[in-house]
Design brief:
By secondary structure, the protein is mainly β. It contains four helices and 41 strands. The chain folds into three domains: about 290 residues, YVTN repeat-like/Quinoprotein amine dehydrogenase (Methylamine Dehydrogenase, Chain H), CATH 2.130.10.10; about 100 residues, Immunoglobulins (Immunoglobulin-like), CATH 2.60.40; about 70 residues, no CATH class. Helix 3 runs antiparallel to helix 4. The longest helix has 17 residues. The radius of gyration is 23 Å and the shape is globular. This is Putative lipoprotein.
Length: about 525
Amino acid sequence: MSTHPRAPRRTDGGRRASLVFLLPLCAAVVLSACGDDSLPLDRPRPTSFRPTEVRAKTTLASAPGFADQSGGGIFANTAGGVVRLRLDGSLAALAPHPGNSAALGRVNAVFRMGPHSALVEAENGLFLAESGWLISPPWRDALGLGITATTQSADGAVWLAHPTGLFQLRGGALSALKVKGEALTGITALAAAPTEDGSAGVWFLRDGKLNVAVATSLMNFEVHEERPPLEKGEVVESLAGLGAGVGTAGELWLLTNQGLLRRPREGWRRVSLPQRPVQLLASGRFLWVKSSDALLLFDADSDEWGLAQGLDTREFRFLSADESGCAWVQVGGETVAVSRAPAPRVSGLHQGMQVVEDGLVVRAVMPPGVDPEEVVFQVGGAEFPASGEGPVYSLGGQEADGTPKPYSFVGLPSGRQSLSVVARFLDGTEARRRVPFDYQPVSTVALSWATDIRPIHLARCEKCHATGPGRTLNTYELWRENATLITAAVRDQRMPADGPLDSQLTSLIQRWAASGAKP
């Protein structure tokens, strides 16, 4: 790929200050210096590919949407409604919950809340889309219309940028991040990515300036205003964050009025493209870049760039992307799901999930099109053929004589791992979906319903699962009988309905169920 010469980089230094605030989150604001004069340069050499395209079987609006990593997603349509799409672009069930306090009204946009949850902004307020329901959350009245961006930090908290400030949704409670009592308004973009020292950060673009918030405790944050190494006259226009992989941290990407910057662990780098990029979108370990007449895809795991061929990108807009490397885009008057290859989908395991049980069952879902000759699962350096219907891969359990089953996490080292689903076709090609996850085997310490689980039930579950509208789960016996359903719902972040649990609480429920669901 050809490159362009770079102008001398601006070297004016940064100043440093400390501002402390409370109500209800704490932060200190620090301005960091630009650094040295040299900036490493990446020169991508993309490989051309003919993208796989799946067309939506309905007309969607030119508004942000949510793409589910198991395929499909939640989008606004041109009639002002909201629709749920399947992997093949067809419509799936989506209806208002009977217990909602308000009707939906016309839909403006849809935003990501978790692996399987979306935030729907409509004229009558905010709603959560989950498992075929549109649910009115208890904190909806705290925010009006105007959400500009959302992101989910490494600890599972959801962050929302709004004209009235920056908000964190944790444990079903909404908190505002403020500096000396002043709201952080003017935020146009959000991204979750590590900081220079490896800490988990929430990056945001505020009034054209780059900032990052880093937790110093559960409800205290340090906020730094950063000055990336920009050229003279260069300004940041958008942000994107890549998630962590096996053996590598995530990273921040910046779209500027002159090009691309990325910040891996080694520090800032400039990415040289033949044409100036104008749109940027990331999810999982994949990054999509749109320039004036080209569409590029960066795979962070393989460190490879691809160039899509055969798409007329003159009238082009990103709607959403998912962790499999698939982007929902508008091309002309059509909405299309675009991916490099017909990648398999995975249910039962999502990107970055903490796995504490060795009996997890994962299902591979093949994409529309030609059936593969063979489907295999790869984990821990071993390969296993998929068996049964689905195909299904059981990640644990033991035989009657006590020996581990062939498809088992027993003996897998704790820490960050990945599971790959590989579909192999008769023509010699293959399609792959790689899902990194955090494996933390269940401890030998027995947890109890009364001490560890009942407080979670009272705080987050009772209002829906005692007297309705959800399944009744107001006793230990009912929790024990439904332990499999409950752990799956909180693990996949489908429940609670008012937002995902903190990762520590999710882990407690999983460990309690995996260790015998004791009273």
